[in-house]
Structures are given as C-alpha cells and as structure tokens.
Amino acid sequence: EAQVTQNPRYLITVTGKKLTVTCSQNMNHEYMSWYRQDPGLGLRQIYYSMNVEVTDKGDVPEGYKVSRKEKRNFPLILESPSPNQTSLYFCASSSPGREVTGELFFGEGSRLTVL
Amino acid sequence: GEDVEQSLFLSVREGDSSVINCTYTDSSSTYLYWYKQEPGAGLQLLTYIFSNMDMKQDQRLTVLLNKKDKHLSLRIADTQTGDSAIYFCAETGGSASKIIFGSGTRLSIRP
User: Fold this and answer.
1) Which of A5, A29, A74, B2 is in Cβ range 3.0-4.6 Å of A93 for a Cys bridge?
2) B80 and B17 Cβ atoms separated by less than 8 Å
C-alpha cells in the first residue's frame, strides 16, 4: 500500500530535550516536505527536499533541522524543543511525474507537546 | 507574498448543499486544489482545477473558479455526516514546493 509513515504519532517532551520525528514514504517520490498545523494558521511549510541531499527552508524553519540521506526518509529534528513548537506536524511527498502536478501525499500527523 | 484565505467554520444541515469559499492573491496560480482532512488523519487531495477552467464537476462535488476575482469555491451537494472534515484550499504556480495552503474551513453537519 502506497503511504507516508510518520513516527511517533504522539509525543510529550520537555524543553531542551532533542527529538526526531521520522518520515518514510514507499512511493519513490523525489519531493518531501514537513508542515506544521496550528489552529487558525493552516499549514505552514518548515523544510522541503527536492531530492536526496537537497534540502531547503520553507516559511518557518527556525528551531528545526532536516536531512535527506536516502530517497525514502526525511526526518525532522528538533535540537532543543521549546513550547512554541507544540503543534501537529505533517510529512508529505510528491513526484513531478504525477498527473496532477503538485499533488501531495500526507502522513497521518505527529502531535508534539513541549512542556 | 502569496496568500490564501478561507473562513474557519461552516455548519450545514444534513442533506443540504455546502459551499466553502476561498480567495487567493497569486495571479500566476496554475493549479488550485481542495484537500480534505478527516479527524485524526492527514490531508487527502479531494479535487483540483486548472486555472484555465471555470468549473469542474465530480459526482457530488462542484468546483467553481472566478479567475478575475481570484475566488475559488467548493460545493458539496447532499451533504452527509461523512463530509464532516476540515477543507483546505491550496494553490501553486506548478511546483509541489510552492503550494500555499489556506487556514482550512471546518465543516460540521447538523441533523
């Protein structure tokens, strides 16, 4: 089954404790991206990657890191989480060859709470 | 910069039509999308329209595009309880990396 898998789905942590949210896709997509969803603000892009070893900042990259060592994986790293990073995070992927250009496939989301 | 705006809430009676509206600012938009987010799940593409089209119909869904006013709407006919979700309007000039999302409209269905 084609899917984007995120882990963990839920996490409560404390300020300053490094954490990683993993994202993996099995569709051989070149493009992957991370978003955060906050009430009333919709989806805001954190980082994206056009292909392996190619990453770029989105609209709200501060406090986050990413890496793209393999095509299928795109982890999101919070080196020193702060309470303002409490949010619902989504990973998404896409392929330029899709009939509907720019159609994104989303993971189920990771709800992060930073105390 | 580019912006996409939608109202946050809409409540309709079961069986009625729902109309969710969206305005955008990017005049170079090539594709406009409606994504649906069901409770506890990620977003899924519901339908899309190319900027050179005025209307697209797909079963109970009708998308209308007024390019002059930069206004997009999604009409859901015979709204059912399964249509309860958050609906996101989105647009892009043609690249997945540049998709701009609205804030989402939460559609609730009353009996």
Assistant:
1) A29
2) no
